[in-house]
């Protein structure tokens, strides 16, 4: 099985590259911060990608056999919030019926979608040493889709898919073999009902509910998350289907606050999950590995990633 670890851009070091390559990990994922930090983190990453020093690190990773991918909550970057002053119609209508530049955008506004698609193509071309699979996600939140009259009948899943289709079509003008991930996560776990996927859109299943659900309906939400795997794979196909897990995600376990907490892998839980994913037909498995960079290594022993590679053999 293909294995991958996603880290924040500033956490990439020669030591991390060697750690992954020596363990037999297949791919390196560069993952800018999500949430309110997303745009600044993307912009900082893009500046780093222009420098010889950072490119040398990525060259080293490629030379050591690691595939390189970028997985990004990109909506706020693709449609900058400062456009709200001149083009409020580009942005979503929230549940209260108000235009807002807080999250995502209006996916049925043709000009907004054209702007997003062209900027997505520019972003794809700027990702140094990237493969042909792109992960440009919507904003990281729940119930942050558009409720305008034209969008309100489209589910969050349909709204995401509409954006993915537009981005991929534009990217393919420059990168003909490009593919794009549909992120099944929180609101987009439900199957799209009204929008058909471009043939080169593949499933990326990210089961975060099992780590963060803590409300009265937590058990129900987690069960629904599990139950959606098979329907999602049937809809999008198994060929490129990918799991994005959180086994090594020390940002989650540190509650997204620095300094990082000492990390302890639940190896038994990880192996149980992997056996389930194998049985379901997944052959591409990734995990976040954020908050395990140089600042972590200054406080604690380096984290061993060989259990992940061994479990995927």
Describe what this molecule looks like in 3D.
Helix 5 (110-126) crosses helix 6 (156-171). The chain has helices spanning 14-23, 38-48, 52-63, 75-78, 110-126, 156-171, 209-212, 218-227, 229-236, 250-253, 267-280, 294-299, 306-311, and strands at 2-7, 27-30, 67-73, 133-137, 179-184, 201-205, 242-245, 284-288. The N and C termini lie close together (6 Å). The chain has 13 helices and 8 strands. With 313 residues, it is of the alpha/beta class. Helix 1 (14-23) links the parallel strand 1 and strand 2. The protein has one domain: Glycosidases (TIM Barrel, Alpha-Beta Barrel), CATH 3.20.20. The longest helix has 17 residues, at 110-126. An 8-stranded parallel barrel has the order 1-2-3-4-5-6-7-8.
What coarse outline follows from CA principal-axis ratios?
globular
- Strand line-up across the major sheet: 1-2-3-4-5-6-7-8
CATH-derived architecture: Alpha-Beta Barrel
Span from first to last CA? Answer: 6 Å
How many strands appear in the DSSP assignment?
8
Structural category is: alpha/beta
The main pleated sheet reads as: 8 strands, parallel, barrel
Q: What would CATH call the class?
A: Alpha Beta
Q: Roughly what percent helix? A: 25-40%
Strand content: 5-15%
Gyration radius (Cα, Å) is 19 Å
Average pLDDT level: 96
The CATH superfamily turns out to be Glycosidases
Task: Return the string of H and E elements.
Answer: EHEHHEHHEHEEHHHEHHEHH
Which fold name corresponds to the CATH topology?
Answer: TIM Barrel
Supply the number of structural domains: 1
Question: Which residue ranges are poorly predicted, with pLDDT under 50 across at least 5 consecutive positions?
Answer: none
Number of helices: 13
């Amino acid at each position: 099985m293909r294995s991958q670890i996603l880290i924040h851009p500033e956490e990439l070091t020669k030591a991390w590259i060697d750690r992954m390559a020596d363990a037999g990990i297949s791919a390196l994922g560069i993952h800018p911060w999500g949430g309110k930090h997303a745009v600044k983190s993307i912009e900082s990453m893009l500046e780093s990608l222009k420098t010889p020093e950072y490119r040398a690190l990525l060259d080293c990773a490629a030379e050591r056999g690691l595939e390189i991918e970028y997985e990004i909550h990109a909506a706020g970057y693709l449609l900058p919030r400062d456009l709200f002053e001149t083009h409020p119609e580009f942005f979503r209508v929230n549940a209260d019926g108000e235009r807002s530049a807080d999250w995502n955008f209006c996916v049925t506004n043709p000009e907004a979608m054209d702007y997003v698609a062209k900027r997505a193509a520019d972003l794809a071309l700027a990702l140094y040493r990237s493969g042909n699979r792109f992960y440009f996600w919507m904003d990281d939140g729940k119930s942050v889709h558009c409720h305008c009259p034209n969008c309100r009948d489209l589910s969050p899943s349909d709204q995401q898919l509409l954006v993915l289709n537009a981005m991929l079509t534009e990217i393919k003008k420059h990168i003909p073999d490009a593919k794009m991930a549909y992120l099944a996560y929180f609101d987009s776990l439900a199957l799209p009902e009204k929008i058909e996927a471009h043939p080169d859109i593949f499933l990326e299943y990210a089961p975060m509910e099992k780590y963060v659900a803590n409300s009265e309906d937590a058990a129900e939400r987690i069960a629904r998350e599990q139950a959606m795997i098979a329907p999602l794979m049937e809809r999008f196909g198994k060929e490129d289907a990918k799991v994005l897990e959180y086994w090594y995600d020390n940002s989650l376990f540190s509650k997204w606050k620095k300094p990082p907490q000492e990390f302890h892998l639940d190896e038994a839980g990880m192996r149980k999950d992997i056996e389930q994913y194998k049985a379901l037909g997944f052959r591409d498995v990734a995990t976040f590995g954020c908050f395990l960079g140089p600042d972590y290594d200054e406080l604690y022993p380096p984290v061993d990633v060989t259990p992940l590679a061994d479990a995927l053999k």
